[in-house]
Amino acid sequence: MKIDVIITPEYIDREYIKGKNVVVIDMLRATTVMVTAIGNGCKEVIPFLTVEEVLEKAKEIGRENCILGGERNAEKIEGFDLSNSPLEYTKEVVEGKTILITTSNGTKALTKSVGAKRIFVGCVLNGKAIAKKLAEINEDIIILNSGTNGEFTIDDFICTGYIIDEISKITNKIELTDISKTAQYIYEQNKDLEGFISKAKHYGRMKELDLMPDVEHAMKKDFTNLVPEYKDNHIIVE
Question: Angle, nearest 10°, between helix axes 154-170 and 127-137?
Fold first, then answer.
């Protein structure tokens, strides 16, 4: 099993991801939102690139049947029900609902992964469960970091290192590219996640907007054993 890392969706090569399993990470905060919402009983999450696509889909399925969520520049979109805060996606709010979501980075990474063999939604919350699933599949893996506005982010990268480290605890039958080895090494040296990601530009943005409770939630290891999969344009757990 070969494990590679792509640091932002801008570096995706459609031919390269064909036949491989992809794990999309947007730790702060899109994939953390998706995993949290599914854990709290939503019917499904459907990611979109644009606000216009979300509104069109809401009209199609009926506004009463869905929740509109997401952000632009880390802030709630006007007219939407929820922002990109995982703490808003409670059981009381999302249970049984379809969530239509668009974000600056995470939904872009997911939609750009179409063409891969399978696409999983990962974050720190389900990092151990993702690792177990990938070890069971035992096929080539690409971990795709969503980044921020096309730039590398250390929060996604250390989450990647965490997942790789968990895989290595399950099996030694893995081949790591240099960037995968680097991600794992950085995690091994910085298991205090907040101490490391506090240096990230995006962390500073979260702090500026008083979103530190979201960050604290996003750093909870082994929070859930759910492994959501993006399949046929829907994110579900089968």
Answer: 50
Q: Is residue 175 exposed (0-12), middle (13-18) or buried (19+ Cβ within 10 Å)?
A: exposed
Distance of CA 145 to the CA centre of its chain: 8
Per residue in 68-124, pLDDT (tens digit) is 999 999 999 999 999 999 999 999 999 999 999 999 999 999 999 999 999 999 999
Handedness of CA 77, 155, 36, 87 (dihedral sign): negative
Asked if residue 16 belongs to a domain, the reply is: yes
Domain limits for position 87: 2-227
Domains in the chain: how many in total? 1
Structure tokens at 72: 């632009």
pTM of the model: 0.97
